[in-house]
Amino acid sequence: MSEGKWRPAAHYVHADGAVVIVPARVAAWLSRHARLDELRAQVRGADAEVDNVLVALAVASATWRTSATGSTHAPEPEVRALSPWMSSTQAADLLGITSRAVRLAIGEERLPAEQVDGRWRITREDVEHYRAGRQAA
């Protein structure tokens, strides 16, 4: 398989469908967008296996996030003096595309972003997810 291409869904399914392998980047995406940390807190203690799998996903998520962004925590959706957010121009530079292409991806909801005072703010984590998705295309 060539590097940067996603594997088919069947590649992640093992033991006749009884086991699914979740890559760390996907665990980070699920953690952020499906709010797995909140779910883990809500269901803690209800089922030991579910607890352990949610903890494993959190560990994989933190590992990927650290390697991609330098921090184990997803950024909070607010702008601070030392912001974890990037502008569309900074994201474009990192991705090797134009800032117009970044704004188009935001408009098409392929790249999550927040507009503050008329300027787009994008987390480094979302830029890394977007970059990984583009490599698969």
Keywords:
2 domains; globular; 7 helices; 137 residues; 10% strand; two-stranded antiparallel sheet; mainly alpha; Multidrug-efflux Transporter Regulator, Chain: A, Domain 2; three-stranded antiparallel sheet
What does it look like?
This protein is mainly α and 137 residues long. It folds into two domains: 9-69, no CATH class; 85-136, Multidrug-efflux Transporter Regulator, Chain: A, Domain 2. It is 54% helix and 10% strand. The protein is built from seven helices and five strands, in the order H-E-E-H-H-H-E-H-H-E-E-H. The strands form two sheets. Strands 3-5-4 form a three-stranded antiparallel beta sheet. A two-stranded antiparallel sheet has the order 1-2. Helix 3 (36-43) runs antiparallel to helix 4. It is globular, with a radius of gyration of 17 Å. The two termini are 14 Å apart. The relative contact order is 0.12. Mean pLDDT is 81; it is low at 77-82.
**Beta-strand content:** 5-15%
For the report, how would you describe the main beta sheet?
3 strands, antiparallel
**Overall pLDDT, averaged?**
81
Strand order of the largest sheet: 3-5-4
- Stretches where pLDDT is under 50 for at least 5 consecutive residues are 77-82
Number of helical runs?
Answer: 7
Spatial shape: globular
Distance, first to last CA: 14 Å
Q: Taking Cα atoms only, what radius of gyration do you get, to the nearest Å?
A: 17 Å
Number of domains: 2
Return the string of H and E elements: HEEHHHEHHEEH
How many strand segments?
A: 5
Helix content: 40-55%
Structural class by sheet pairing and helices: mainly alpha
